[in-house]
Write a structure and sequence with these properties.
heterodimer; A: alpha/beta; 7-stranded mixed β-sheet; 6-stranded mixed β-sheet; B: alpha/beta; 5-stranded parallel β-sheet; 7 strands
Chain lengths: ~325, ~325
């Protein structure tokens, strides 16, 4: 749909982009506050809230007990009564602890109450593996939340997206989950100094191409671009699309691409079986069946919990090589 | 309003009777197959909702339970919109999208009945946090049952409320059962209020069949919260005359008919009417007049609901999300 808006400017890491977004959002609107485990004094275990306590004080940057249901409920009750909370759930793996508040309360309140409730709630969390943090601290569970009507889900793939999507999420009047990637925290990109939004539900063509479409999310976006560069040697001209928002999903941009390229695959770090790639692939074949020259492929993690040993985890988290090999497989070439 | 003023007492009576008649008529409609789904009726527990709500304004919030009609009626809920919601009509409080267990009126500060046991306490923390953040004098009250006091959410909420010194009153409506399981079979303690000190807040037990006792005790806790002294855990010992779901009072496997009859002797409305007559504030005849007036309101509301349209099919996909620029 659009190409990445990346004017020449200063380059900052993803973690700084998130931090800057939250700070600017809090300056702009006194109703915005941040609450979560270790977000205040410690600046978050990932550094995303460093400096915020000093600037905004303990009433607006709130350290909570380790109580995910309580934390989510704090956000929901505050959002329902006029505030605009950012709630941090430290690791996405902990969503299981607060599922009811998220899925049965936050997601459904507006609908169940006939439209009266408004929940401008942002739920920030960190996903992904590759850091030897093992099974309970490495998951990508976005598929669960894309499946719940009433929630929106965004997954920034770089520093520019991280700031723009955080702003859009906080400005949106719905419960929006921002799934940041811990493996991308140090990845730098050009990020405008002023606050800006990336519209929700709008995909980005990261790398234009003509004969293969890779739809990639989160940390798989840079991996897909790397795969695309490698595949150029095979004579392929790969188009990489980053949906940026997973729910609502911009199928139109993807279909327009597949009509052009005739071949597609979806890549995500999450387990392949039941991952959101299944939904995207189903939609692609529904909407662009007549344009496809090959089945829609999917790259995801194997069907197991995330292993600890680096000897195993290196085979677990998808990467550029796995994506490129899947492309070749789809094209009928040897791996 | 002071406890001794006739206005206060008559208001408490009116709130209780309004709940009772609303619930009894709803029960009959459900039995007659006119209301779809399940109803969890508040009959017998009226003194708790009335005694607490009499201290609250529309800007004070409550979170509720699956047994939430009594809470909404006591907080000034409109009976027409309530019945219409139970009937699944477009004119209902939730446009027919929520039903009994999700009935809500945010304008009255009623943040919804809840189909999840223990779903309310964390959100009550949020509402109280919001009151403190916005520097209002408002209070949040969290209603929950003895059953819910075993859910982790209660414990998290209690800790956070005390830690942050929130303007929040926890009101445990201990009716002796977590669904169909008697309290002594679902928790090791007898007084839920004993848990208060574990979280660093005061606790108190109150006779939930005595509306004046509830009014007085709740008044203290709410005043405490309003002046910034933090949360309280109140436990109202009460009893539901009907079944967990539906209207059956007797002939159930988990309690004896004799037990129900014993508790019925302490019907909170009968007890209060006797006291009001004794005090010369409300004669039997006057009490009957109040009853007739409320019954008229109830019947009018039912007629409104029965003649209301169902939601159109397009309504199915409406209000899943707030649309930018739209009004909630």
């Amino acid at each position: 749909m659009t190409t990445a808006e990346a004017p020449a400017g200063r380059s900052i890491p993803y973690v700084t982009a998130v931090n800057e977004a939250i700070a600017q959002l809090m300056r702009e609107d006194p109703d915005v506050f941040l609450a979560g485990e270790d977000v205040a004094l410690y600046g978050s275990v990932f550094g995303i809230s460093r400096g915020l306590l000093a600037e905004f004080g303990p009433e607006r940057v709130v350290d909570t007990p380790i109580s995910e249901s309580g934390i989510l409920g704090l956000g929901i009750g505050a959002a329902a009564t006029g505030l605009r909370p950012i709630i941090d759930i430290m690791f996405m793996d902990f969503m299981g602890v607060c599922m009811d508040q998220l899925v049965n309360q936050a997601a459904k309140m507006k609908y169940m109450f006939g439209g009266k409730a408004k929940l401008p709630l942002t739920i920030h969390t960190m996903a992904g593996g590759g850091r030897s943090l093992a099974a309970q601290h490495s998951q990508s569970l976005e598929a669960w939340f894309c499946h719940v009507p009433g929630l929106k889900v965004v997954m920034p793939s770089g520093a520019y997206e991280a700031k723009g999507l955080m702003a859009a999420a906080v400005h949106d009047d719905n419960p929006v989950m921002v799934v940041n990637q811990k493996s991308l925290l140090a990845a730098s990109a050009v990020v405008p100094e002023e606050l800006y939004e990336i519209p929700l539900g709008q995909a980005n063509i990261v790398r234009p191409g003509s004969n293969f479409t890779i739809l990639a999310i989160g940390a798989m976006v840079p991996a897909a671009v790397e795969a695309a560069e490698a595949l150029a040697a095979d004579g392929l001209d790969v188009e990489v699309i980053d949906p940026r928002t997973l729910q609502p999903f911009d199928i139109d941009t993807v279909v327009a691409s597949v009509r052009k390229t005739h071949r597609a695959l979806v890549a995500h770090e999450a387990v392949r079986f039941g991952g959101i790639g299944g939904e995207f692939a189903a939609q692609i074949q529904e909407e662009a069946f007549d344009y496809l020259d090959a089945p829609v492929g999917r790259v995801g993690a194997p069907f197991s919990p995330v292993p600890f040993s680096p000897a195993l985890e290196q085979h677990y988290v998808p990467n550029a090589e796995k994506i490129a090999n899947e492309v070749r497989k789809i094209l009928g070439k040897q791996v | 309003m002071t406890l001794s003023s006739p206005e206060t007492l008559l208001d408490l009576h009116h709130r209780m009777l309004r709940i009772r008649l609303f619930e009894e008529e709803a029960g009959k409609l459900s039995e007659a197959g006119k209301i779809p789904g399940a109803l969890h009726l508040y009959v017998g527990e009226e003194a708790v909702a009335a005694g607490v709500m009499a201290h609250l304004s529309d800007d004070d919030q409550i979170t509720s339970t699956h047994r939430g009609h009594g809470h909404l009626v006591a907080k000034g809920g409109d009976l027409k919109q309530m019945y219409a919601e139970l009937f699944g009509r477009a004119t209902g409080y939730c446009k027919g999208k929520g039903g009994s267990m999700h009935i809500a009126d945010l304008d009255l500060g009623m943040l919804g009945a809840n189909g999840i046991v223990g779903g309310g306490p964390p959100m009550a923390v949020g509402a109280a946090f919001s009151n403190k953040y916005r520097k209002t004098q408002n209070v949040a009250v969290c209603f929950f049952g003895d059953g819910a006091s075993n859910e982790g959410t209660f414990h998290e909420a209690a800790n956070m409320a005390a830690l942050y010194r929130l303007p929040l009153v926890f009101v445990c409506e201990n009716n002796g059962f977590g669904e169909f399981t008697r309290q002594e079979r679902h928790q090791a303690i007898h007084d839920v209020a004993d848990r208060a000190s574990a979280y660093g807040m005061p606790g108190a037990v109150v006779d939930g069949m005595d509306v004046m006792a509830v009014y007085e005790t709740a008044g203290e806790a709410i005043a405490r919260a309003r002046r910034g002294d933090g949360p309280t855990l109140l436990e109202a010992k009460t009893y539901r005359f009907f079944d967990h779901v539906g209207v059956r009072g007797m002939g159930v496997v988990y309690r004896s008919d004799d037990e129900v009859r014993e508790w019925r002797k302490r019907d909170p409305i009968d007890l209060f009417e006797a006291r009001l007559a004794e005090m010369g504030i409300l004669t039997r005849e006057a009490a009957n007049e109040v009853r007739e007036r409320i019954l008229f309101e109830v019947r009018e509301a039912i007629a409104f609901a029965e003649s209301s349209p169902f939601p159109k099919p397009e309504a199915l996909l409406e209000d899943v999300y707030t649309v930018a620029g739209g009004v909630a």
